[in-house]
Amino acid sequence: MKLSELGEFGLIRRIRALAPRRSGRVKTGIGDDAAVLRQTPSELLLATTDMLIEGVHFDPTYTDFYSLGWKSAAVNLSDIAAMGGRPRYCLTSLGISRSCTAEQIMKFYRGCAAALRKYGAVLIGGDTCSSPGGFIVSITLLGETEGKRRLLRSGARPGDHIFVTGALGDAAAGLELLQNGGAARSRAARTLIERHLRPLPRVEWGRAIAKIQGAHAMIDISDGLSSDLAHVCEESGVGALVRSDAIPLSGELRARCSRLKQEPLWYALHGGEDYELLFTASPAKTAALRKLDIPLFEIGSITRGRSCLITDGHGRKKRLQPAGFDHFRKDGSSVRTAERPGSGKR
Amino acid sequence: MKLSELGEFGLIRRIRALAPRRSGRVKTGIGDDAAVLRQTPSELLLATTDMLIEGVHFDPTYTDFYSLGWKSAAVNLSDIAAMGGRPRYCLTSLGISRSCTAEQIMKFYRGCAAALRKYGAVLIGGDTCSSPGGFIVSITLLGETEGKRRLLRSGARPGDHIFVTGALGDAAAGLELLQNGGAARSRAARTLIERHLRPLPRVEWGRAIAKIQGAHAMIDISDGLSSDLAHVCEESGVGALVRSDAIPLSGELRARCSRLKQEPLWYALHGGEDYELLFTASPAKTAALRKLDIPLFEIGSITRGRSCLITDGHGRKKRLQPAGFDHFRKDGSSVRTAERPGSGKR
């Protein structure tokens, strides 16, 4: 079977069948933002890994090595954040193209180490190899929980409110700016680009949310809201209803889309790489959540069905089709190839 | 500075300067076979990672996906073995070339899972991406120690005997057989090829050796005896004297080299990828080691100097130059390009 037919998530389902979901000290195996292991009777160990490949995840023509190091750490830090954990130990492996200089590699490591330091983690190991193709990064990050509490994708319950922690779509718009080769002339453009190149994982917020007993499920928005909400619904066996007018959009994204006559919602739904957290919580916990001093946007609620729906400004519902990045589908990244409002296809 | 001037180990020295060698719960950071973390007051957590890149570490024209999965796990299992640890949890990331089928990927995972299962570890997570270049594997393996005992590269003491756990050079000869495209007609050739494609990490032996209090330093032979012994000497601040006639050579390697008029010692010294263990121990512990029912070959001793020397059959000493694989040196892999006896250069 071709991988383009199976898709990334079909492949992951097959791999999961080879590994125990739970066994012994493995509390959660393949399929969440991080694996969960019992470390001590009162503490959990979290383990996550992400690979970034030149030409797929980044393009060195507009990504400097420091930013690449930062982002490579940040995407892993964000996975630990999405479990409500504290990042601790990092292993960084590189496949280094022949053209790289020692200075570029050290810039990468300085960016990586800076992101780790900011969030309380340290570099403890890794591997360095030559790569005959492009530059390759593979990072594994270990984290810990305080107590045995962690938030999985699978905990959402019908009636839960759905929250996100910040504006969505900025990183995708920033990527587009970079891909179009436009220098960041305006402050707004620089902000969008920064959101793409140097994402800020929501580590402290994730830990605070996980402490609220009525918070039930959490994920970080890496693939895009439409895809990541679908992951939560699939793992939890529930559906969702999202109010499109409740999705937070930054002033920078609105202004850019208004100028280009584009629909900002497309970026927010399918863009990905914002690394905000999405979580669900019992409505009874809204007051407790509001006290956390975290940006919170309630964008909809979890339903009994199995489908994700979205209402437009006139209250009309339609299916929210996951259109985030899939590594093996022929249409690949939604950012680059999926239909967009304004492109005449919708 | 060019990486080809700095070399792989020069680069690692620079990266080490960015990370704590020891701090808090990090007992050993970058620079050994695995990082060592305090997990509980009485237990250590080990973490190791290795990346394997098509065209550098393997060639799909003669490596089947099952063997690749096995070997990718085995090289990491061997790092845990070299610390005296017990392998436990594995994260496997793949960069998958466009031409791969779902069946090939599942064969990879079955090989990987089989090796993990044999040595008591399980797959708990990973990442799957598309790769525009070749196939890429990155594995992180977590292990544990029983008690706080682990064997580092840095523990060797002058006077220690140097032991290896099995015949060296077979894997390099097996690689050469594969590279020369010769089908494995003879049983001997198949044995050498098997040693290259499906190495057996010495996990149980590593654990048994680590329990002997007079065992001081350990490493797995992945780069080649000359390089890996140099790592031990450098980290321990000592030298070594190796007796060339004490280095164990398999009958298969001897027979092949005799037929081709090659020097088997070259493969044993510089070939790499045998994944036998090299360790040093106080001579007073030789009797205790012999009782372990492990193949043990005493190949020399640790000295006060800083240089690694080797004696030939006539007792003449010469310097044992590390000629194992370096990812960034211009001459690259010793297996493919370094001078060989019989090539007319020596």
Question: Mind explaining what this structure looks like?
Answer:
Two copies of one chain form a homodimer. The first copy, chain A, contains eleven helices and 13 strands. The first copy, chain A, has 346 residues and is of the alpha+beta class. In chain A, strands 8-10-7-11-9-12-13 form a seven-stranded mixed β-sheet. A six-stranded mixed β-sheet of chain A has the order 1-2-3-6-4-5. In chain A, strand 12 and strand 13 (317-319) form a beta hairpin. In chain A, helix 4 (170-179) packs across helix 5. Mean pLDDT of chain A is 91; it is low at 333-346. At the A-B interface, helix 1, strand 2, strand 3, strand 4 and helix 3 of A face helix 1, strand 2, strand 3, strand 4 and helix 3 of B.
Q: Roughly what percent helix of chain A?
A: 25-40%
Order of helices and strands of chain A: HEEEHEHEEEHHHEHEHHEHEEEH
Strand content of chain A: 15-25%
Class by helix and strand content of chain A? alpha+beta
The value of Rg of chain A in angstroms is 20 Å
